[in-house]
Amino acid sequence: MTLPNQALVLFSGGQDSTTCLAWALSRYAKVETVGFDYGQRHAVEMTVRPAVLQKLRASSAEWDARLGEDHVVDLSLIAEISDTALTHDVEIAMQANGLPNTFVPGRNLLFMTVAATLAYRRGLDVLVGGMCETDFSGYPDCRDDSMKAMQVALNLGMATRLKIETPLMWIDKAATWDMARTLGGSDLVDLIRTDTHTCYLGERGALHDWGYGCGTCPACALRARGYRQFAGYAAT
Ligand code: ZN
Fold first, then answer.
1. Cβ atoms of residues 35 and 11 within 8 Å
2. How far is the CA of 193 from the centre of ligand 1 (A)?
3. Ligand 1 center–CA 202 separation, angstroms
4. What are 60-96's pLDDT values in tens digits?
5. Residues lining ligand 1 (ion), CB within 5 A?
6. C-beta separation of 162 from 154 below 8 A
7. What's the gap in Å between 224 CA and the centre of ligand 1?
8. Distance of CA 210 from the midpoint of ligand 1 (Å)
9. What is the pLDDT of residues 12-68, one digit of tens each?
10. Ligand 1 centre from 106 Cα, in Å?
11. What is the pLDDT of residues 86-143, one digit of tens each?
12. Alpha carbon of 215 to ligand 1 centroid (Å)
């Protein structure tokens, strides 16, 4: 038995997945990345990915040596078969079932399945995702139980011993910023602040202390609040 040491990180170009990528690079001998193009209304996340990868490489010779191929998978069928505020031009709002209309049903389950298929081909034994139960929007497929069930289903269905790691599952956004500082110091915090993208509306006009974004959508509000909490306790 060898310890799992080759990881595939679900990397969107946002704060969470970039922090997960740094986490994986500090742990595993080999790390590959996968991004999903699913007809997001604003493809800014997908366009910032190459620059984030390049800057992570430049930040550490060790990380550069560990970071392998980047894969981009076209999942435009998600926009075809679902109707949500992330893939269609409608106002972000709360739905009658208590979930925001940015929820894309089954998205993370599909992402994990596709990632597992890719990991199988590439001989990678860990899947790393930024799902989080603490500071989340109520998406049921971000929950720990959903991810654990997914790990069991994938391993049964593919006769593998894949491990799903979700390093952000039990921490809030402020602690996610803090994790970045622990992993890569203030350089990594600055990289995440200025190069990653989280805003639902794709706004990249003004640079705020917490990064680019409209400042008012749920993703921006969460990111800004977390950064300010982090910066507050970072100064003490
Ligand atoms: Zn925003």
1. yes
2. 14
3. 7
4. 999 999 999 999 999 988 877 877 666 666 676 777 7
5. 199, 201, 213-214, 217, 220
6. yes
7. 10
8. 12
9. 999 999 999 999 999 999 999 999 998 776 667 788 999 999 999 999 999 999 999
10. 23
11. 666 667 677 777 776 666 778 899 999 999 999 999 999 999 999 998 866 678 888 9
12. 5
DSSP H helices in the chain: 15-25, 44-59, 61-66, 77-81, 107-122, 144-158, 173-195, 218-234
Q: Residue 149 C-alpha to ligand 1 middle, in angstroms?
A: 32
Q: Which CATH architecture has domain 3-235?
A: 3-Layer(aba) Sandwich (3.40)
Q: How much of the chain, in percent, has pLDDT values that exceed 90? A: 67
139-187: per-residue pLDDT in tens?
888 899 999 999 999 999 999 999 999 999 999 999 999 999 999 999 9
Cα(48) to centroid(ligand 1), Å: 16
Measured in Å, residue 204 CA sits from the centre of ligand 1 at 9
Question: What distance in Å separates the CA atoms of residue 8 and residue 12, rounded to the nearest whole number?
Answer: 12
